[in-house]
Model the fold of this input.
Amino acid sequence: MTLLRKSTLAIKREVTYGVDPVVAAVDVIEVMGAPSFIDAFDAKERNVIRNTMSMLESVRGAESVSGDINVEAKGSGTAGTANDADALWEAGVGIKNASTASTTTTGSTTTSIVLTPGGGAGFAVGDAILIAGEKTWITAKATDTLTVSPALTSAPGTGQAVGAGVHYKLANGVAKSLWMSFWRGDITREQYAGNVIESLSMNMATGEILSASFKYQGKSAVAPVAQAYGLGAVTFDLTAPLTGLNMTLTLGGSTIALSSLAFDIAHSLYRRLDLTSSGTKEIKNTGRRITGSFSLYYDSEAIETTFRNDTKAELRVTAGSTAGNIFAMRIPKLRYMAVPKSEQNGIYQYDVTWEAVATNGEDELTSISYL
Done:
């Protein structure tokens, strides 16, 4: 009998597409529920005539792999250190950078943070930061001076700590590929090569654990072998998962109460075929779209007015308050695509669908950060 809870999953970024990078204990991640791995071969029918109504046995065609993996949304417990599922987050969004903690010196304002000499080197435009309990984003940097938005409640004084973080941002380049090793029930080891994230989805519901779902497409599978997990002891993140409670949601500069919020980063993938392989030479990303939805009670016509005027709005989402376990996301401009009304328990609500709007490219999402 093969037990799900006795299974182990390790994921590592490939250096060369489709080539085993050799996973180690540090690459093992926590997974929500059973991860999905589907290894499939096209079945090619033989369209020949030989005086029979029966179809001849099909011929095996190209191989492909697909599936999905769900993880809890939570930080590592140490600000500036990536969580267990780092490889998935980086591949699902695009690129990653880590910021280094610093402190303020004199001259800061609510929108301009002046760091001690050399402190600016540890931050990049698009990073979210934690300062005096507030979360804001860096929109510009000049040496050790950070321009931030939204504005802080008050100007920080000298010696104020500016926290570190790990930041995932959009990329204009080749998608990162992942190697996956799965010990199913501590009985067999399965390996999957050349996996590229097709979509990263989050559905935030009131009172529920925040989680992320990563759907992927892969090149091929390695034949499973009888093997128990043996990479050594694993140190998992000990932080509690974030929940849909006490979050801060800001839409168009105003705090808003939503009962649910979802978003999806969908990558258009192209499978480059190859006669000299089992079917796939490489999987390339050819485009990206960020969409989502949210629900809120119908208290006024404001949402519909925004929709009819095609007004763009900024969306900021934060969850958690303890450094090392804070989630922060900013979408500078979203556009309402539809604002249908529905009834729930005798109360009307908006069920809004939206899409993120790019200005210059790779800027429809500022970042997804763990602080």
User: Anything to note?
Assistant: The radius of gyration is 23 Å. DSSP finds two helices and 25 strands in the chain. The helical segments are 86-93, 302-308.
